[in-house]
Every structure is written in C-alpha cells, then in structure tokens.
Amino acid sequence: MEKETCIKIEEAAKAWTAEAAEMLQKSFEDTLTITYKSHIADLVTNMDKNIEKFFIEKIQKVFPDHKVLGEEGYGDEIQDTSGIIWIIDPIDGTTNFIHQQSNFAISIGIYEDGKGIMGLIYDVGNQNLYFAKDGKGAFLNDYKLPKLDKTTLSEAVIGVNATWVGPNKRINHENVQEIVRKSRGTRSYGSAAIELAYVASGKLDAYMTMRLSPWDFAAGLILLNEVGGIATNTDGKPIQLLKQNSILAARPGLHEEILNVLVR
Amino acid sequence: MEKETCIKIEEAAKAWTAEAAEMLQKSFEDTLTITYKSHIADLVTNMDKNIEKFFIEKIQKVFPDHKVLGEEGYGDEIQDTSGIIWIIDPIDGTTNFIHQQSNFAISIGIYEDGKGIMGLIYDVGNQNLYFAKDGKGAFLNDYKLPKLDKTTLSEAVIGVNATWVGPNKRINHENVQEIVRKSRGTRSYGSAAIELAYVASGKLDAYMTMRLSPWDFAAGLILLNEVGGIATNTDGKPIQLLKQNSILAARPGLHEEILNVLVR
C-alpha cells in the first residue's frame, strides 16, 4: 500500500470512529428517560445497525474500491481476502452497552490481501483508543505500547469467561480449570475487542475464548502483532481471518505454557 | 450521630480520599521507569502501607475518639462494633494496581455501633466516586443512583470469579456452574469493592465471592443498602461485620433466585 493511501485511511478511520463514539455516547442521554428494558434493547439493536451503516456509507464514498465485512451484515459478501477489507464491529460488547453503558468498543481491522494493515479498538466509555499500524507499532492514545515481555502462568492474569471453566461443548473444561488454578488470577470483561487490547497493552497477560467472529478479533490481532503478542486457535493452529475461531492470545512464553495444558 | 458531626466526617473522608488517590496516581509516574516486576511489587507494598498510615494519621488528629480497622494492620485492635469505626482498604484490587494501573479502589466504610453511616468507594483509574450516606441515598459522582429494580437470573449479568466455577474448598462448584449457565453472562474485575459498587449502580446485577475481609465489603454494604440491594452470606445468613464472610450481593428477586440454587 502506498504511504499516502495509508495516511488517508488512518485519518478517515480515526475521524469516523470518533464520530461514531459520539453517537453512541449521545444514545445514553436518550436511555436515561427510558425505564423499560425492552426499549433499551430496541435502542441497542438500532445503534448497532446505525453505526455499521454509518461506516459503510463513509467507506463507500471515500474508498469505493474497499470492501466491508460487518457484524450486522450490511457490508459486502466476502468470499476471499483479496483487496482491502474493513472488518467492523460497531458495538463489541453489546450486553455491556446495555447493562453498563461502558466496557464496549468500536472495533475496526483493515486488511489488504489478508495482511493486517491497521487496527483500531475504541473503548468508548473510557475514551481509550488502541491503534496499530503494520510495522509502525501500537499505541494507547498517545502512548506507544512497549513490546510484550515473556511471563509465566504463575505470574499471569488471564482473561477467561466462566462459561469455559464449567462443562461445555467446545473445550475440555478440566484443562481450563487447571489454567485458572495455576494463574495469578482471572478476569472477564465481556468484550473480546477490549480483552485483546488489554493483552496488547499488558493489562492482561493472556486471553482465551472459544468462539469469535472476524469482527471480534480483526483489529485485536493487528495490535498484538505490533507488540510481539502471539495469537492462535486454542489448538495452536493459525487463525482463519474470515471464519469463526477459538482464540488464545498471550505474551510470548505464556502462550506456549497455556497451549501445552490445552492440547495435551 | 449529630448532623454536624456527620457533615464533618463526610467532608474529611472525601478530601482525604481525593488526596490519597492523587498519591496513588502519582506512584505510576515512578513505575514508568521501573522495569523489574519485583520493584513494582515492592512499590505496591509501600503504597498500601503509606495510604493506610495517611488515613490513620488524619483520622487520629481530627477524630481522636474514632477507631480504625485497616487491611495493613496499622489501625486499632477492634474487639467489638461499639463506637465509630473507619474500615479502610487503601488499595482494593492490588493485583490490578500492579498489572493494569486501573480497576483498583480506595474503600472506606464508616460504622457507628455496628450500623453503616457512610461508604466511599473511589475507582481511582476511572475517577468514579461511589458514595452513600445512611438514609440519604447513594451517588456515583453527582448522579443519584436509582433504587434497584427486581430482575431474574436469565436477564442478569453476574460478577463471579472463575475460581468458584471449578472445584474448590468453599462452595459446591456445580451449583455455581448452574448459575453461570442460567445467567445472561458473567464478568470478573478483581476488586470486590468495585464489584459491589457495580451492583449498587446496576452495572452488575449480582456479585458473589467466597471469602472477603471487612475492609473489602464494609463500604459496599452501605452503598447497597441505600439502593435496596440485598447482601448476605452465600448461605443466606447475615454478614458479620468484623469477620471474613462469603458474600452474595444482588438485586431484589435475583438474590433469592441465586440463593435457592446455592443452598439446595
């Protein structure tokens, strides 16, 4: 990609994300007068759709040859990874959006021929922008995130939801219990995008989950790559960009240690 | 308690909390140049102790007849609940303080003859002060928190750590797994004070954990009481203020529904 194009994409993505975040924050003012849960749920569905449509309209106008893959399905029919694809989750962490009005994010991963070019995860409630550009590093607002040091499970704080610690169809829960037991502690925030951004910024040492869609992880993978984080499926295989995947993202060293428990 | 005394305590507690929060935030500037984990751990130990001593000195000077119960043990030997007792956790969520530099809190519960008078939980990273005064309601910064509506488990987001979802010595984990399965979702933040404040402010519908000390829950109970939240041990018995307790805190309705699973 030419440098000029890349700068143009960065400026546009950041400006549109800021605008979308404002729309989301503004929607809370409306909910303050709404007391019935069903109404809030309706509002959320609308906001998810509206924000996705907002991005698609902007992208189609400014970058007519780019494609869009979005959670709400208003984007393009994507068959392969050729060309430039914006992979967008307008609200990652919708339950948090409803229940907490915080801990949700706008997630945008931009790929060219399957290679991550740029990732943005905007934690709207805390006004924290996690941003990464291929080969240029990752940033939390103005702060350049350092490369991730190695760590061990006994010193690690792991992002894992309680769902995977009890019996479930997707993973041997006894292996997950062992990871929980051997770690320093676990956390769960209910937004995959934020949890991947936390691994990239060192707030979590690892994050694992059993089923994510492309819009949940597309931006996070680019962030992780820039700081030396490792991300694979929970069986150690490479993540497939356009499919549902299990994800194990972690600092170096720790990724291998967790994987050894999960795959034995 | 006389109204004047109460106002004096409120002003002092808020001012000292703000001052302590500034000390904690400032400590991060020092850590930016510290790269070895052991050094950060030392710093944390110091900050825990320093903040507790800071409060004790202030309290002894301004309210010489009040007693202090603190996590670090610099306070008084408390035998019973008579008189006015400040129950203080200088840093609730120490692991988060080290790993995240956010999601930790200063927690202060003030009791008179065993009755909750005032509670403060200051989420330092997000600059959110949760404050409650007996009979006067609970507040998140300037916003008066509404009374908690009833809810059901299937619509509820529950705060519960993965530790209790696997086999453990303190609770039948299969009952906890059932609660996880039947809920809308679970979260875990690693700070009991913040998690109790989240229940009081509706960000979580319930929170359960198996072992908390007085300084972990003293402030949270006062907040919950002001918004109609229910808090007991996980076997339904009353919480004992000066001992370690299991805690189940929840919206009305939901508390009973969860308890029915835990005690059967």
What does this structure look like?
Two copies of one chain form a homodimer. By secondary structure, chain A is an alpha+beta fold. Chain A folds into two domains: 3-144, 2-Layer Sandwich (Fructose-1,6-Bisphosphatase, Chain A, domain 1), CATH 3.30.540; 153-262, D-Maltodextrin-Binding Protein, domain 2. Chain A is 39% helix and 25% strand. Chain A contains seven helices and twelve strands. Chain A has a seven-stranded mixed β-sheet, sandwiched between helices. In chain A, α1 packs antiparallel against α2 (37-62) and α5 (192-200) runs parallel beside α6. The longest helix of chain A has 29 residues, at 3-31. Chain A starts with a helix and ends with a helix. The interface between A and B is medium-sized, with 32 and 32 residues.
Order of helices and strands of chain A: HHEEHEEEEEEHEHEHEEH
Going by helix content, strand content and strand pairing, the class of chain A is alpha+beta
Helix content of chain A: 25-40%
Q: Using DSSP, what is the number of strands of chain A?
A: 12
Q: Spans of chain A of 5+ residues with little confidence (pLDDT < 50)? A: 32-37
**Class of the largest domain in chain A, according to the CATH hierarchy?**
Alpha Beta
Count of domain modules of chain A: 2
- Gap from first CA to last CA of chain A: 42 Å
The number of helical elements of chain A comes to 7
CATH fold type of the largest domain in chain A = Fructose-1,6-Bisphosphatase, Chain A, domain 1
* Strand-residue proportion of chain A: 15-25%
Alpha-carbon Rg of chain A, integer? 18 Å
